[in-house]
Structures are given as structure tokens and as C-alpha cells.
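In response to reviewer comment 3 from the previous cycle, which asked for concrete evidence that the modeling workflow produces usable outputs, we include below a single protein chain processed end to end. The sequence was submitted unchanged, and the resulting C-alpha cells are shown without manual editing.
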Amino acid sequence: MSDEKYPDYDPKIVQDFFDNHYVDRGMLKWQGYYLSDHTSALNKEAEEKQRHFEPKALQSMAEISQRLATAYANIYRVSIQCYAHNSEGKLSADIIGHVKGYDDVSVYIEENGFLRLDDIRHVTVLKP
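The workflow returned the following C-alpha cells.
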């Protein structure tokens, strides 16, 4: 089957090329499409995983609740260290933000969302 515009076109030759001669570079061909901000975000994430965070003094639930209440009442920011570990088994970075509300089981940190109180190991109130 040939086309009037392309009289030398032969679909069998094209199929033979793709079946036997063309080498697909796979994902390599897409690497040029990464945006610089995406690349820098990936680099930052890799650096964060490598950082080591020392465990802070373990606090009681009463002390954690008291510090969260103080921060909430005075509109202070808090730095919260959780029990959670990253994929390398190291403690994750502290969660920092303003306490916008809490109840018996969770606290809402404006910049980070809800955290369960029993996931928190240490709270530091950051006064201005």
C-alpha cells in the first residue's frame, strides 16, 4: 500500500525497522524533561533522608499537653519531635508550626495538619 504523497513508503520496511533495528532508550529519553525545581526538590529530599536527628528527652503526655495548650493560648509556634522514622530508620525532622486546635487524641498544626498525641515524643514551645 503506497500513498500518492510518499510513493516509496512501504509499511513492511517501517515495521522491520522497529522490530529489528530501533533501540528504545527507555526512561533516558525523558530525563531532559525534569524541571529544575523538581530536581532540586528531589535533591533536598535525599539530603533530608541523610540527616541525623538526635532524640530529644522523652516527655510525658501531661507535659506534652501542657506545652501544646501554652502554645495555643499564646499563639506561639511549636517544634514537635514524633516517634516516626524515615525510610532509613532515622528520626524524622521536627514538625514546626502554630497550634490551631487540639482535642483528647490529636492536635492540629496549621502548616502540617493533624498529629496524633500518642505519636509525639517531645514538644518545644518557640517563643518569639
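The chain has three helices and five strands. We consider this sufficient to address the reviewer's concern, and the full set will be provided in the supplementary archive.
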